[in-house]
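queue> holo job accepted (xanthosine-5'-monophosphate)
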Amino acid sequence: MLAGAISPRATWWQEFSDYRSGPASAFSLAKPCLGLAFSDMAAIKEPESLDATFYKPADAFFPAYNHIGLTFDDVTLATLYSEVLPHETLLDTSLGGGLELNIPIISSDMDTVTESRMAIAMALSGGLGLIHYNMPERDQLSEVSRVKNHVHGLIQEPIKAGPDQLIGDVLNLIEKKHFAFSTFPVVDGQGKLVGLLPGHVVKLRYAKRKVMEALTPRNQVETLNKKDLGRDPIAKADKFFTDHPGIHKLLVVDDQDRLHGLFTMSDVERITLERNAQFKPARDANFRLVCGAAVSATRNAFGELDRERILAHVGSLVERGLDVVAVSTAHGHSKGVGDAVRMLRGAFPKLPIIAGNVTSAAGVDYLADCGANAVKVGQGPGSICTTRIVAGVGIPQLTALYVASRAANKKNVVVLADGGITKSGDIVKSLTLAGAVICGGIFAGCPEAPGEVMEFSGKRYKQYRGMGSFAAMKAGSAARYGHTNDSNRKVAPEGVEALKEVTGSVDRVLAQLIGGIQSGMGYLGAANLAQLRQKARYIRVSPAGQREAAPHDVVELKAGT
Ligand code: XMP
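queue> job finished
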């Protein structure tokens, strides 16, 4: 490396690690002060009190700024003496009511963010997905079932071909859907396995041929019966691939030979490697992935809370194994939301309940008293939100989190920081006040988010829209904003319809976020999230300080986030 060049993060922490574990050169002056005379001890106390003059704990810092709303970039955290290496930090968190996550990150209940695919990916990485409610209730039940019945590594609804299709049709499908694979199970009208269409025949030269003419017939295709999957299906599939060199796909069928899923060797190999990962999947007591779902405080034709409908639906969600329900609205400190939470708490005493959104201590008190375990905090910080512009209402997120967190501590409920997070540093700042964060935009470009990929000027995008946008409210979310779905009534949208550039998969995005959180904790000497909350020291950042914090005076070749 060139003299004076900035060492990459890993190297810097490596140096720190070397210092901690043995002889150090450059760092030796900073070694702990064992064996110092009292006069020397007095000398090192002084810098500490100097630090305390500038870098304040939350209860001194935020009240000093009670005349201004602060958000993430207005504030930075001070570093502290550390014996903690980032990769040693623990990120487990509790959402109350016995629900534990292995990472403090939740995907938002939005119709362009969380359905079963996203919820599965989040839980596999140790977090949680909240399935949105902009769909018929029976569809939301199926989405929850998909998460709860998910067998890791088994593609439960593989893309299939029909025996009478042309290979040209299959090629068109691959192009239209941007599939990165070209081998397809072939099933008949009853879902029974007919054979396997191997990738090497899915070629333009065979376009006019029928799938039936080119497939590998059923009697030559290796399968596994669903009932033989056992408790560890991945180990079973892994052994199969070892025992059958050259076979890269394993189909799962039932006793009637109907197709139930597909293992691919590459998935199985990746999962086997990931088993050593630091953050384990978030599972329930029966080893199933955890899953949350949102509901709104729906009203009946008389404008009253539709108690029967909400109770029946949440009851069905619970039967399917739901781990947490979120009563999700734009204004949680309201009678309808309070009544819904109180009713659900009465009907389901053990079900963890999230409610929101609020930005005041009184709002947290209210929802906690109604029976919520966790409260969503955030009004208007979201990347697609226009509540502050349209309604002139909402509080910059860090101030809101501070106020809410102090009320939550007294009521013993958990604060969830919802919206406005664009980088891992925002999460670190949030977690100094909250138990977990809820993110929408960060995940909306992932392949696991609902929606098709669109291409404009050579770039790939996915739709991302506010649940208060006109289109989302028309699709069902109007109740969240206190409106009806009646399209004849004029309502003011509180969110925009937007695009997000396509990103990598959820586990890749999470790897970046988690890396950032762990770095932040290392800088503060916080081994876990409780220590992060207790140790955090804040200082206000000037506009020049904000500019200084981002890359500047360089031509950036590769984005750093
Ligand atoms: P991010 O910043 O992660 O924010 O994209 C996601 C959060 O924004 C909230 N949300 C909205 N807020 N109008 C709003 O004012 C909307 O249309 C809207 N849709 C979502 C929600 O809390 C979400 O988790």
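queue> Residues 108, 110, 357, 378, 380, 382-385, 387, 418-421, 438-441, 466-469, 494-495 surround xanthosine-5'-monophosphate (CB under 6 Å).
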